């Protein structure tokens, strides 16, 4: 290993062992780059990880792997990942969804993997809008969402040029916002395009054993290429010298040097690692305002046995869909219901227990300011309220039935998100303003992951690949 002033040196140091960091590390190590991935926490995966409780394994973040396409379909984001990382598709063990739904007062839009069902439902529920809906789809399919230097354009502004019914517009935005928008009430049009394709054109898949299957495949590949990884190894600061990043200083005081640094920690978090105060106005304005809470109910029977056979339901109970920072601890007006049992797993294979997950918008500051006793009391009080808010959109499934079938529960809040991801404000989707090209004020420090603007598990891996290709393999 080379050395600078007697210290260990790498071609690239990557901060964060999530999907983006692992994908970037694999791509670089594939071309014999000396790569080190540093992770503050003890589990890999970042925003899409897993944990153990009461003898059970719980996924964090994974409702679905988007962009699912059948084997053999080429030219898709998923196919690009397998090709660029040289990982066989079988390693991810993906199974397609049964079917999902957007549920608003008095109207539902169903969708499966592929566009036909949602197009049919829009034609039935909004006959006066179907021509505009089809023109919007054509615009989405023609748009080059991978142009990293394109200026930001409001998705609401673009969509309103094609749709005149505010309910249909909100129903289209609801799942796309919940699956990746860091902006309140709107999103960047390039992100809208990416998510439209991921959710409506391609669809959802999931490994039977959850996100750890994907993490294991990435770790095995990275390890086989000789990449280095250190867990429970937090970065105290990024070492800079004029216009360059020279390496990192760990929380232990050890210094490591590299020709370049890729940070998946987040935009605001990376600025702080470079020496800026977390309370500086320039940093605070980067911190996203959106965070979430989620309940997990482990059931004695699968949801389908209780009458719920859909995969994911995006719901809203109000005339207007409000995707914004909650003014209460939890915003019960809308949310996401996920039932991981309801995928088309191979014959004879199934999850050992039923799972019902409900995600809601939540207020980070309120949850963070609770003392520990109050925090636990509020979690206990909000858990049944969140579940009951979701059951309104699961006809025939009563609260008493869920209560009787529940054998184990858990719940995370924005406070949990901040603790285990180190994202300021518990902002799952990071900064409102993204750095599409991954560049920072330092010529060899780059951003990858959420704050590059790529979304979800597939987006995170594509982000890592794109940054590695653009900067790590061309210098």
TrEMBL record:
InterPro entries assigned to the protein according to its UniProt record, in alphabetical order: Amino_oxidase, FAD/NAD-bd_sf
Q: Does the keyword Oxidoreductase apply?
A: yes
Using the record's annotation, list all stretches that form the Amine oxidase domain.
19-469
Give the transmembrane ranges: 12-30
Coiled-coil segments: none
- Database matches in SUPFAM superfamilies: FAD/NAD(P)-binding domain
What the entry lists under Pfam families is as follows: Amino_oxidase
Q: Which domain of life is it from?
A: Bacteria
* Keywords from the named record: Membrane, Oxidoreductase, Transmembrane, Transmembrane helix
**A Gene Ontology molecular function term of the record:** oxidoreductase activity
- Which PANTHER family does the record associate with it? 4,4'-DIAPONEUROSPORENE OXYGENASE, PHYTOENE DESATURASE
Tell me which family the UniProt entry assigns to this protein: Belongs to the carotenoid/retinoid oxidoreductase family.
How is this protein named in the record?
NAD(P)/FAD-dependent oxidoreductase
Which organism is the protein's source? Oceanipulchritudo coccoides
